[in-house]
Amino acid sequence: MKNKSNLLLLSALSGGLLFTLLFWEERLALNLLIYSIYLLIVTFINPDVVKSTKLKIYGLAHLLAAVLVVINNSDLSVAAYYISLLLFIGFSHNQQIRTIFTAFLAAILQMVTVPFNAIQNLSKISIGNFKLKPVFTLIKYIFIPVIIVTIFACLYAAASNVFAHYAEALLTSIGNFFENMLHFFFKDLSIRRIMHFFFGLILTSGLLLAFFNKSLEKAELKCREQLVRTRLGLGHKSLWYNIIETFTGNLLTRKMALKTEYIVGIISFAALNLLLLLLNIIDITTLWFGCEPTGNFSGELHQGTNSLIFSIVMAMAVILYYFRGNLNFYHKSKTLRLLAYTWMVQNFILIISVFIRDGYYIEFHGLTHKRIGVLVFATLCIIGLATVYFKVARQKTIFYLFKVNGNIWFALLLTFSLINWDVLIVKYNLNHVDAVSIDPYYLTSLSEKTLPFLDKNRAKIHPSTNNDSEVAKVDRPEEALMRKLDNRIDYFKTRYEGSSWLSWNLQDWNTAEYFGLNK
């Protein structure tokens, strides 16, 4: 036990030093990959961590996300990096967790409880015959009062300007005292650099030191993937049930009889099918086979797409409500299932309409992140409908939906991170500039990786006569666009020349190669 604690604490300390060496005044790029490799090595040599196949898969997924940050260096790849890191940490210390959502929460809980985890591990260390446990027992007695005093001091400072003035003066004096002492002994060190080190130490500790309470893992183990018919007894009422019953009687808490709920479901799904059938017929006849832009075409497409996506999500929620429990086992539920399947098929047709609407939007106004987002969300809706079908057909629980959809969403996140979206948007729009009403101000505001392509196609970057953007309505728009592009190129050159190898990424290197900055 002592060797394990010594290993983890030494790893956390080394990780804090590595963090400040890698990330001090650097951009997120190659340094993230190095830091991730360190975390993966320490986690896999930790004897407390079970090296399961699931953990290896999520470890490789996180390594892929770190590599994609170096290759694509996009906001999406950075988001995938952080999410994959938290999932890897959550699964590494909670091996029995089954869903990425619970793993994510477990990792957050582990990060929040860093002080408690550190104290518990430090209390196990002994130096010769001297044990540190009594020292950290005393620290525990001081730690909680300090937290409480700090919280109330902040509240009193917010309530009284005079109190806030004295508190600020006291904190400033304490800070100056320690800064003067530090500069007296170590002239080259700064308080900011030391704070950066402590932040890295706390972060690394939160990623490596496991939280000793496994309540979250135990709670998830009680969740089932397969529905089981249950008989609810009147004698078993929760506290929440009793509170609601006190104010509303049995109006909100009573449950419909199974037959009554079945009849209500039949009527609801029959009416919804007829309603959606009418909408689908209108879309098929007016949208699927040719559509000419008239009036506020952009606004109509945008509003219609948002409404349809919301309706699809609500449709899945309605299905989940009716097939949440014993109605799945009702002997007459075949008709209800058939109506539900029909509604799923109609919602799939509705998703096709969303794709077509967004396709028209892209055809007339070009690619943007939001329009790509609509395509991605519509794809997720198809996956959601498919998993809802399996849930109803095979009598699965909502927990099953969370487990399956979570894994699919995470896989798609990594897949979409493979694509360099900014470059794709700029290339598509400028290659179709004669047919697409683009917004050049939007294109020139994308990331620096698009600068080479923008610079090569300066002649194509001009406000379109069909573009109704208010931004485009300025004096001498072509000159303003070129000036903006030149300023961004100059900024990139200055930034790149001042960057170290720790901030290296493939996109910056390609852009610098185009402008002749690489030696």
TrEMBL record:
Protein name: DUF4173 domain-containing protein
UniProt keyword terms in alphabetical order: Membrane, Transmembrane, Transmembrane helix
Membrane recorded as keyword: yes
Pfam families for this protein: DUF4153 (PF13687)
Organism this protein belongs to: Pedobacter jeongneungensis
Biological classification of the source: Bacteria, Pseudomonadati, Bacteroidota, Sphingobacteriia, Sphingobacteriales
Stretches that traverse the bilayer: 7-24, 30-50, 62-91, 97-118, 138-159, 194-212, 262-284, 304-323, 335-356, 372-392, 404-421
